[in-house]
Amino acid sequence: MAQDPRVRRDHARARVLHRADRGADRGSAAAERPPQRAARRGAHAAHAAETVRDRGASLATFLGEYDLVAATDYLMRIPRNPGNIVPLTRTKPYVTREQLTRLLDTTKWRGAPLLRRALARARTSSSSRPETLVRLMAVDGGLPEPVLDYDILDENGNFLACADLAYPDLLFAIEYDGAVHRDKDRFVHDIDRTTRIHEAGWTDLHLSAPHVFIDREEGIRRLRAAYSRAKEITGVPFGSA
C-alpha cells in the first residue's frame, strides 16, 4: 500500500508513541483495572484457553458486560500493522472464537451465560478496552455498529490514518484520546493527522475518559449527534442503514 509523504514524516514520532496509544493506558486509570491486567497476564500464557477456563467463572461474576466483552476482545484480537508503522511481534490471536465457544459448551459455570453473551458481542479488531466500550456504547445507543481499526486512505490509495472506529460510508471517524495524546509531540502529530483526514473529506469525533468511563450517557449523546451530522453532510437520512 502506498503512503502519503506527510505520514512518513510523522513516523519517527508515531513509532515511539504508538505502543502507548494502543496499549493499556488510553487516558484513564480505569482503562487498566485489575481484572483487565489479569486477562492480559492470562493471555500471555502459552495456553490462553486453559487460563480462561480457570479464571472465566470468577471474571463472569466480577466484571460487568462491557468489561467482559473488552477482555474477550483483547484475547481474540488479530494483530495488524496499519500503515506499517510498528512491526508486529505476533500475527495470531491469543485465543480464537471457536476455542472459546468449545470451552463454554463444555462448562457448567454459573456465569457461563454471561460469558456466552460477551463472546457473541466480541470482535477481533479492537485495539484497546476504550475502543471496545465506545463500540458497545454506539450500538446500545441505537447506532449501527462501527468498524474497528479502520484504515483511512486518500483518493490514490495512500494511507492517511487508522481510525479507532469508523463509519466508512459516512466518512466519519471516532477517536478515543487517552493520556498519551497530551504529550507535546503527540499533540502535533494528532493535529497533522486530523488535517489529513479532513482534507480527504472525513469528519471525526473525539472522546476521552469522562465520556466513556464517567458520564456514558453524555458519550452516547455525542456519538448520536456526530453520527447525525455525518449523515446530513453525506445526504443520508438519519434512520436509514
Notes on the protein architecture:
α2 packs parallel to α4. The chain is 53% helix and 11% strand. The chain has helices spanning 5-22, 34-43, 48-62, 65-76, 97-105, 112-121, 129-140, 184-199, 209-214, 216-234, and strands spanning 147-153, 159-167, 172-176, 203-207. The chain has one domain (5-234).
| Gyration radius, rounded | 18 Å
Helix vs. strand class: alpha+beta
Order of SSEs, N→C?
HHHHHHHEEEHEHH
Low-confidence sequence ranges? 3-35
Distance between the termini: 30 Å
Whole-number total of structural domains: 1
Number of strands: 4
Biggest sheet features: 4 strands, mixed
Mean pLDDT: 80
Beta-strand percentage? 5-15%
**What global shape is seen?**
globular
Assign a percent range to the helix content.
40-55%
Number of continuous helical runs? 10
Main β-sheet, spatial strand arrangement? 1-2-3-4
Considering the chains and any ligands shown, give keywords for the structure.
241 residues; alpha+beta; 53% helix
Topology:
Elements: H1 5-22, H2 34-43, H3 48-62, H4 65-76, H5 97-105, H6 112-121, H7 129-140, E1 147-153, E2 159-167, E3 172-176, H8 184-199, E4 203-207, H9 209-214, H10 216-234
Parallel strand pairs: 3-4
Antiparallel strand pairs: 1-2, 2-3
Helix pairs in contact: 1-8, 2-3, 2-4, 4-6, 4-7, 5-6
